[in-house]
Amino acid sequence: DAGVTQSPTHLIKTRGQQVTLRCSPKSGHDTVSWYQQALGQGPQFIFQYYEEEERQRGNFPDRFSGHQFPNYSSELNVNALLLGDSALYLCASSLRTGFLEQYFGPGTRLTVT
Amino acid sequence: GEDVEQSLFLSVREGDSSVINCTYTDSSSTYLYWYKQEPGAGLQLLTYIFSNMDMKQDQRLTVLLNKKDKHLSLRIADTQTGDSAIYFCAESIPGTYKYIFGTGTRLKVLA
């Protein structure tokens, strides 16, 4: 049973660039949430996707956007990158009816220089 | 407001019990979670408890909830070196799909 997978593992970008991160949910899961984890901090909720729509958003600017595909996989896009966007980006999947149990992927480490 | 607080570090000897503490602020009925994060890895759900419960036990893990003080603790019995990791407390916000995480407690187990 494949767990949550994320790609790429690491990424280095320059300020002002755009980045796309990808997530495949655990088999059978239909809901994907994205989190930003800065160094030494806990994860911060970015948004959640269900049925290809964003149904909840955290306190992140519009530079952060996402998409969910019919196969439930998801992308996180960040435009106009800032140094402060450097973080570990975590994807978590769950079942709509079992939201209690989120399964996290290993994350994508984004470094903005 | 929404805030979850944890102490930053805890060091214990192998075989001892570890107790990791957390305080939360949301006063509504909610679920509270403990996650474990090992270096270079994502978060692993260890256990969760609903806010109308006082205690939950799962093998070496015991969760205690003091609703009056909004205090949550995770006790790990017979702590092993493999338990060394960062432990996050989190709460789900009622009426939303959001989780609020604490800053994490780094547990170091000394052999």
Model description:
The complex is a heterodimer of chains A (113) and B (111). Chain A is mainly β. Chain A contains no helices and 11 strands. Chain A has strands spanning 5-7, 10-13, 19-24, 31-37, 44-50, 53-57, 64-68, 74-78, 87-94, 103-104, 108-112. In chain A, the strands form 2 sheets. In chain A, strands 2, 4, 5, 6, 9, 10 and 11 form a 7-stranded mixed sheet that branches. Chain A has a 4-stranded antiparallel sheet with strand order 1-3-8-7, with no helix packed on it. Chain A is globular and about 40 Å long. The mean pLDDT of chain A is 93. Chain B has 111 residues and is mostly beta strands. In chain B, 0% of the residues lie in helices and 57% in strands. Chain B is built from no helices and 11 strands. Chain B has strands at 4-6, 9-13, 18-24, 31-37, 43-50, 55-58, 61-66, 71-76, 85-92, 99-101, 105-110. In chain B, strands 2, 4, 5, 9, 10 and 11 form a 6-stranded mixed sheet that branches. In chain B, strand 4 and strand 5 form a beta hairpin. The chains are: A mainly beta (113), B mainly beta (111). The interface between A and B is medium-sized, with 24 and 22 residues.
SSE arrangement:
The complex is a heterodimer of chains A (113) and B (111).
Chain A: E1 5-7, E2 10-13, E3 19-24, E4 31-37, E5 44-50, E6 53-57, E7 64-68, E8 74-78, E9 87-94, E10 103-104, E11 108-112
Parallel strand pairs in A: 2-11
Antiparallel strand pairs in A: 1-3, 3-8, 4-5, 4-9, 5-6, 7-8, 9-10, 9-11
Chain B: E1 4-6, E2 9-13, E3 18-24, E4 31-37, E5 43-50, E6 55-58, E7 61-66, E8 71-76, E9 85-92, E10 99-101, E11 105-110
Parallel strand pairs in B: 2-11
Antiparallel strand pairs in B: 1-3, 3-8, 4-5, 4-9, 6-7, 7-8, 9-10, 9-11
